[in-house]
């Protein structure tokens, strides 16, 4: 049996996020879905897996059902597959942030950097003077990254602020292009950098996962595998599960 996996997020005001937790959890259980969904006042984030019918039904409920009342109309969504169920249980958690940067002044609902589609990403990387920035944690970067990307060597996303303060300068680094797994960390990171006075901040829409899904391997600038936070561990081009190394 093949399972359908959905990685999703959206920054959207959810003042009632606490009330949503239990009915959302019950809905996922009723549909036979496992994984983790995070809820906060700023939106929803998570990855879940189930049968194709179950995942499709959940996506319909998220977008059109009474729980979110049409608020998830701009859901960033990537689908992949798994040969075995990649999660042990279903969890819905309440958080202060759906991705933790730890800076109250950073609000992706107010403004973020400029989105760059996977189709346009390679062209951007060829432009002179662009600082290419990987916003992920060090162990993720080790598994794979784009050619020429700066590794901030952080162990958690909250350390990104210190990296920017110590290593980057708005006066010198006038054009920054960044990327992350699914796009959500770049929403926060780009908003933070704009607040710090950086002039032009761009980010890969849909993240590495969308790039691997859309860009043919022969044209790809991606090297290695993309770490994912489930039991599949990593995905390759076409969002297929990475096989064991030949080394």
TrEMBL record:
<comment type="similarity">
    <text>Belongs to the TrhO family.</text>
</comment>
<dbReference type="GO" id="GO:0016705">
    <property type="term" value="F:oxidoreductase activity, acting on paired donors, with incorporation or reduction of molecular oxygen"/>
</dbReference>
<keyword id="KW-0819">tRNA processing</keyword>
<feature type="domain" description="Rhodanese">
    <location>
        <begin position="126"/>
        <end position="220"/>
    </location>
</feature>
<dbReference type="GO" id="GO:0006400">
    <property type="term" value="P:tRNA modification"/>
</dbReference>
<keyword id="KW-0560">Oxidoreductase</keyword>
<dbReference type="InterPro" id="IPR040503">
    <property type="entry name" value="TRHO_N"/>
</dbReference>
<dbReference type="InterPro" id="IPR001763">
    <property type="entry name" value="Rhodanese-like_dom"/>
</dbReference>
<dbReference type="Pfam" id="PF17773">
    <property type="entry name" value="UPF0176_N"/>
</dbReference>
<dbReference type="InterPro" id="IPR036873">
    <property type="entry name" value="Rhodanese-like_dom_sf"/>
</dbReference>
<dbReference type="Pfam" id="PF00581">
    <property type="entry name" value="Rhodanese"/>
</dbReference>
<dbReference type="InterPro" id="IPR020936">
    <property type="entry name" value="TrhO"/>
</dbReference>
<protein>
    <recommendedName>
        <fullName>tRNA uridine(34) hydroxylase</fullName>
        <ecNumber>1.14.-.-</ecNumber>
    </recommendedName>
</protein>
<comment type="function">
    <text>Catalyzes oxygen-dependent 5-hydroxyuridine (ho5U) modification at position 34 in tRNAs.</text>
</comment>
